[in-house]
Amino acid sequence: MIKIALLGSTGSIGRQVLSVVRRYPDKFKIITMAAGSNAVLFSEQINEFKPKIACLTNPEKVSQIKEIPLGTQFYYGENALLHAVDSEADIVFDAVMGYAGLKAVKYAIELKKNVALANKETLVAGGSLIMPMAKEAGVNIIPVDSEHSAIFQCLNFNANKQFKNILITASGGALRNVPIEELEKVSANDALMHPNWNMGKKITIDCATMVNKGFEVIEAMWLFNAKRENIKVVVHPESIVHSLVEFDDGAIMAQMGVPSMELPIQLALTYPERLPIENHALNLYGKTLNFSEIDKNRYPCFDVVDRAIKLGGVYPCAISAADERIVELFLQGKIKYTEIAIYLEKVLEKIENISVTFDSLEYVDRLSRIIVDEIYKIRGSL
User: Fold this and answer.
1) Which of 1, 52, 274, 381 is buried deepest, with most CB atoms within 10 A?
2) How far apart are CA 56 and CA 125, in angstroms?
3) How far is CA 283 from CA 23, 190, 202, 238, 260, in A?
4) Long-range contacts of 310-316 (CB under 8 A, 24+ apart)
5) Cα(70)–Cα(23) distance, integer angstroms
């Protein structure tokens, strides 16, 4: 029985983790759970799974927790998340969005717990700190993103295996066929209409802008000890090939499957064993697979993130935090879609590089969001 500490239980990834536990109750047990603001759903979850510890980080939503199971310790507030990183857990499944997820991974490593990682900020902002910590502690960082799970599978679950190049696939997002000259007119609803994937709002917008692919490049660099020049991004509209690995002899291994997070989520908990997932088979009959280079004119945000990669230091952290706030503004209808890249560029210009520490990353995370708001005040609302 694998004991799971689940962080971010009410989000898209967290809900699917719980589906895996329901599917195989003899193999998995949720011993701690944490959520952010969706108190109503969280209340249902803790009464179903009856964890030892339950944590809600938004104190304003506590009144919506109507019943706490007997034997469950309940914590709330900004630092409640760390209570869910429990010493009894066999694995910490980090599906939290934002910088808080990095703090949780740091604490999990200090407790020498393996981490199934679905939180981008951990490696985008803090990869230079987290990966050496994990190596020293003998902790495995198991990728959950479909792209990095695919790479992990192509490497036969050996993150240290030698390869020539990594090829990360990108769907192109919801706006991939919209004429470039019309992109400034698109709404948040337009950008959220992803043709292949059903995901949260933030990640769906990041798919449309290709910011997420820049972040995935950073993650791949840390997860697989890869240089930037050995990572390529290819646009693959069908979302059947989830990523590929090229080897020195010219062979290319690809992992294919339906566009769903169920497989990488379950595999993060079961590998190297593969367990059945009902109605998850891929039918290749009649399918055509297409691959192309990124159109830099359509996806200027990718170039901005790539520039942050080359600058290194705290710049990836700055871009990650800024993007979160910028996407909020876009979802609220306060800025145009085409302004997202402009805001990201301005944040890069205003941030000064400093030594990377956990304290400096937290400072840059806060500062980048403040800079976004200051830019918004100057540029004005739509």
Assistant:
1) 52
2) 24
3) 23, 29, 30, 13, 14
4) 310/228, 311/348, 311/353, 312/353, 313/353, 313/354, 313/355, 313/356, 314/351, 314/353, 314/354, 314/356, 314/360, 314/361, 314/364, 315/348, 315/351, 315/353, 316/124, 316/125, 316/218
5) 24
Strand partners, 3: 29
**Using CA atoms, how far apart are residues 241 and 167, in angstroms rounded to an integer?**
10
Dist. CA 262–CA 260, nearest whole Å: 6
pLDDT over threshold 50, residue 382: no
Measured in residues, the chain has a length of 382
Q: Does the predicted TM-score (pTM) go above 0.85?
A: yes
- Half-sphere exposure (CA, 13 Å, Cβ side) for 361? 25
What DSSP assignment string belongs to 280-304?
A: -----TT-----B---TTT-HHHHH
120, 130 in Cβ contact below 8 A?
A: no
Instruction: Identify the CA nearest to 321 among candidates 342, 344, 288.
Output: 344
pLDDT tens digits along 323-377: 999 999 999 999 999 999 999 999 999 999 999 999 999 999 999 999 999 999 9
Tell whether omega for the bond before 272 is within 30 degrees of 0, i.e. cis: yes
**Residues 256/154, Cβ–Cβ less than 8 Å:** no
Q: Answer for the pair 220, 166: CB distance below 8 angstroms, yes or no.
A: yes
SS3 37: coil
Output 342-349 pairs: Cβ under 8 A, ≥24 positions apart.
Answer: 343/372, 343/375, 343/376, 344/211, 344/301, 344/304, 344/305, 344/319, 345/304, 346/371, 346/375, 347/318, 347/319, 347/322, 347/371, 347/372, 347/375, 348/304, 348/307, 348/308, 348/311, 348/315, 348/318, 348/319
User: Alpha carbon 92 to chain centroid distance?
Assistant: 15
